[in-house]
Structure prediction request, 245 residues.
Amino acid sequence: APGLSIRGLTKSFGGVRALDGVDLTVPMGQVHALLGHNGAGKSTLIKCLGGAYPPDAGTIEVGGVSYARLSPRESIAAGVAIIFQTLSVVDALTVAENIFLGQEWTRYGRIDRRAQEEVAAGLLERVAAKCSPRDRVGELPMAQRQLVEIAKALSRSASVLVLDEPTAALSGTEADALAERVEDLRTQGLAIVYVTHLLSEVERLADEVTVLRDGRVAHHAPMAGRTRRELVESITGGPLESTPR
Ligand code: ADP
Ligand code: MG
Ligand code: MG
Prediction:
C-alpha cells in the first residue's frame, strides 16, 4: 500500500549538497529508521518533506499523489506529520486547545469547547496519554507533550508520521512507553519515519533502515526475513555500540 515514497531528492545550500538523489520508501504499517551522522542530511530530508524547503530535484509521493514541491500547508493536507525535537505545542494552551489549534472551524461551524474536549479525550486514549484535555500543556512532562503533538497529528488524519530523535529528551521509562506507542501506530497503519542514533531503537522498531552519509544513501536494508539484530549488523558491518546518551 502507498505510504511515503521519496525519489531522487536533491537539495543544495550554496555549495553544500545536503541531499543528493535520495530514495526512501515507507509502506503503510511500517517503521523506517533513518540514521546518519551529523550533517548527513536527515533534517534537510525532513524539512523538504514538511514543505520548509523546496527540493532542487526529485519527487515526494504521499498517499499515491506525487509532488515536486510542497508548501507546509500542502504537506499537512497530504497527511504528513512531523514531530520535531523542539515541539510545536503551545505551553499556555490546554491539551484540547492545542489539538484543535488552527482547526476550530469546520464547514458545519465552530467546534465548541465541550466537543473539542470529547474528541481530544478519544485521541489521548488512542496514544495512551496520561493527561486530560483540560490540562495546560506547559505543566506536562515532555513525554506527555510529545503525545499531545502526536494526538494532534492523528486529529488531522496523518498517514505519514516522522519522529525526529523522539527519545532524546525522555527518560528510559518514557522512551520505552514511546516505543510501545510507535508499535501501536504502526499497527494502526501509519507509515513512520523514525530518525535515531540509537541502534537499540532500530533493533526494536525498524522494518527497514536507511543510513545517510554526505547527502546520499550509504546503506539501505529491508528486514527480508532477518532478525532486527542481523539487520543492524548488515548496515554497520558488524556489532556496533550505540551512541551513549
Ligand atoms: P543532519 O540532520 O543529518 O545532521 P542536516 O540536514 O542538518 O544533517 O545537514 C546536511 C548538510 O546541509 C550539512 O552540511 C549542513 O551544514 C547543511 N545545511 C543544512 N541546513 C542548511 C541551511 N539552512 N543552510 C546552509 N546549509 C545547511
Ligand atoms: Mg544534525
Ligand atoms: Mg538534524
